[in-house]
Amino acid sequence: MRTGLTSVLSASAATLYERLIVSGGLSLVEHPDLPASSEARELIDKGFARERYVDLPRLVPVEPIRAVDNAILTKQRQILDQYQTLLHMRDEMQALQQVYRSSVFSGEPGDLVRVITDPQEIGALSVELCLSAQYDVVSLETEHFTRPPDPRSARSLPAEVLERGVCFRNIYSRAALEVPGATEMLRKSQESGWLCRVYPHLPMKLVLVDERAALLPLGPTGMEGAALVRSPVITAALRTYFELLWSRAVSIDGTPAKVPPEQDQVLRLVLTGMTDGAIARSLGISERTVRRHVQALLKALGATNRVTLAVAAVREGWVD
Questions:
Q1: Percent helix, strand, coil in the chain (nearest 5)?
Q2: In 3-state terms, what secondary structure has residue 247?
Q3: Most Cβ neighbours (<10 Å): which of 127, 134, 174, 249?
Q4: How many angstroms separate the CA atoms of 227 and 217, rounded?
């Protein structure tokens, strides 16, 4: 039996197909039970054999090259069906997401801000918000901890979140890096994909996700209580505040922070006047990724369009 056949046929069906090839076909009169056999049905369904009723009825093989083409078409249909199923699932999940958001945030004043006092719920909600991010998670970290940071608790960012192209950025207060264990925790965070900068002093901690939800601490550590804020007005103000700090923060080694490498390439091509499509082809990435990087650059530099982006990039020293 040729092993290539077993990639598309069961072993018994592959054996029958080779038998049909060698014999030129099998008489259905001599083998009356053959058409009902699972091997024969598999060959017929997958386009490797057919029943012929000219003269004596026979089960005959389909020419190998045509059979392979039939197998490829069958596989393509299966892949297309699976793709359509995934698209349908995504649409259903989007609908459920809207229901979820409506149940958590109905738009009533009492739902704009919710106070949480259970430390475990605060921690779980912080993780849940980050995992649900579509494009951006930003945070502020101060020197106030309920216990010293444990580098062993650092975890890599989930693959499914990174595949969505979510950007993770964090600003540390300078004093936070002097807490035992913080430096090692910072190193592991950077290795897992966080972009980190340092600012001399931060008044509070913060987690902001997609400019749709924020966790604000009610005390120094954030574990005494936190406010879950979904007010678009407040989250937009927090975004502006974070981007202002980010533009003034420095890299961990103390040098002025530059644009991340993957965004630097996009920025320099944007400044040449290239379209998103042209940039995507040049860098071998998708247009969606290019647009995401451009939006991140606009926010980071407080620009409103590509012209003001160029001016701001030169002003901040991001390009020569």
A1: 55, 15, 30
A2: helix
A3: 249
A4: 6
